[in-house]
Design goal:
Layout (H helix, E strand, L loop, with lengths): L7 H22 L1 H8 L3 H5 L3 H28 L5 H26 L4 H24 L8
Helix pairs in contact: 1-4, 1-6, 2-6, 4-6, 5-6
Length: 144
């Protein structure tokens, strides 16, 4: 099997974009719906210490970076070089690994299906954008 080509700046930027989408998704667009579905309150969030918040953000960013590092492998194996191919890679990665995992969590924790829609939608949008980015932003090969 050919060694995958991973363009680390694209992986990093995809992780940053997911972080920004998360802020918009959970902080602006679906905040109240997410609060209602999870039972997490603003008061609970405000009780987190600075260290807890920093670890949450750092842990999230590391997880996002890993997601796009692995997706860069999939993109390389699929030879995705166009926006459409990147979106397809993002979609199939989301459907096969993320949507199903979130569904199982929602079912076993007996949370409302709306939580799956909110969380799954966030990951779908993020992974579509990340897949496109990874497919079209490739490292320039050194001239021979």
């Amino acid at each position: 099997m050919e060694q995958p080509k991973v363009h680390y700046p694209a992986v990093f930027v995809a992780a940053v974009i997911q972080f920004i989408i998360g802020w918009l998704w959970y902080g602006v667009m679906f905040q109240q719906l997410w609060i209602n579905a999870t039972g997490v309150t603003m008061e609970m969030a405000q009780e987190m210490s600075g260290g807890q918040i920093a670890m949450t953000y750092l842990g999230s960013f590391v997880a996002f970076f890993i997601v796009y590092y692995v997706m860069a492998h999939f993109s390389s194996y699929a030879k995705a070089t166009t926006a459409k191919q990147g979106a397809q890679t993002g979609f199939w990665s989301w459907l096969g690994f993320v949507a199903t995992s979130i569904l199982v969590n929602v079912l076993y924790t007996m949370k409302p299906f709306s939580l799956w829609l909110i969380d799954g939608g966030y990951w779908l949008v993020s992974m579509l954008i990340g897949g496109v980015l990874l497919a079209v932003w490739k490292k320039k090969e050194a001239a021979s």
